[in-house]
Known about the structure:
78% of the residues lie in helices and 0% in strands.
Amino acid sequence: xxxxxxRLEKIRQSLSTLSVEELQQIRRxxxxxxxxxxxxxTQEQIYDESFDTQQILSSDEHQQRxxxxxxxxxxxxxxxxxxxxxxxxxxxxxxxxSCFIFSIITMTSAILISKGNSHLTNQTESSETWGIxxxxxxxxxxxxxxxxYLFPLTRFWIENRKIEGLLIITMSFxxxxxxxxxxxxxxxxxxxxxxxxxxxxxxxxxxxxxxxSLTLLVSYLRSAFHVDVVGEIQSRxxxxxxWSALLPTSIAVMASSANIFANQCTGPSHPASNMYCMxxxxxxxxxxxxxxxxxxxxxxxxxxxxxxFLVEAVSSFLLVPYFxxxxxxxxxxxxxxxxxxxxx
Length: 344
C-alpha cells in the first residue's frame, strides 16, 4: 500500500459527513496553509511532506555520524601522539645514558693524558684544561637527566619539557667545542701534528658523545614539538637524505686531506711532487668537488623540492668512478688513508 493512503481514506470518510458550510470553512483554513490549492492536501503532498521529514532526519543522522567520526579521529590522533612519546622516551633515556658513559670515558682519558705529559706549552696546557673541563660539563648535564629519568616523579618534570630541551642544546654545543679542541692536531691532545690519532678513547668517544647529543636533539624535537626532521628530509624530495649524507662525508675527506697536505707536503723538506703528497692532493680535490656538488643539489632540493633527473644522473655518474679511484689510491699503501685510518 502506498505511503499516506490510510490517512487519505480517513480524511475522505470525515469529509463525507460534513455539511457545505463546514466544508467551506475547511477550504479557507487549508488555503492559508496551502495557498496554491483550494482542497485538502492530496496524496502526493502528504508523501512529499513525509519525504522531507525523512530527509531532515537523515541529514541529522549524517551530521551526528560526521561529529562522531571527527571525535574518533581526534582520539586516535591523541593516542598516536601518546604512543610516539612513550616510544621516544625510553630511546631518549638510552641516549642520555650513552652521553653519561661517553663523558666519563673522555674525561678520564683526558686526565690520564694530562698527567702523562711532563713538557707542556701554554697552548697545550690550555687545551688539556678545556679537554677535561668540557667533558666534565657534559657529564654533569647528562647526570641530571639520567637521575631525573630514573624516578617517575622527577621524570614528569623533565620529559618533553623546556628544561630537557635546554640541557640537550647546551650539551650539543659543549660536545661540539670538545670535538673541535680534541681533534685539533696543533693541540696534540688526541691527534699528533701529522694528523694521526694518538689516543682513541678521547678522540672516538668525544665524537660518539657529539653524535648522541644530536640524536637527543632530533628525538626531543619530534616528541615535544612534533617536528620530524628525518621525515621532513625524506618527504621533501627523493634521495635528499643520500645527498645530505654525502655532504658531511665529503667535507671530512676534504678537511682531513688538506690538513695532512699542509703538515707533510709543504716546505723544502717535504716535496709535494712525491707519490704520497700527490695522493693526498687527490683527496683534497675529491672532497672539494663532491662537497660542492652535494651542497648544490641539497640547496636546490630544499628550495624547489626537486632537481632535474638528468642533473642528478650526470652528477652521480661522475662521482662514482671518481670515488672508486679515490678509495683505491688513498687507502692503498703509500696513501694517506693507509696511515690515518679516519680518512678511510
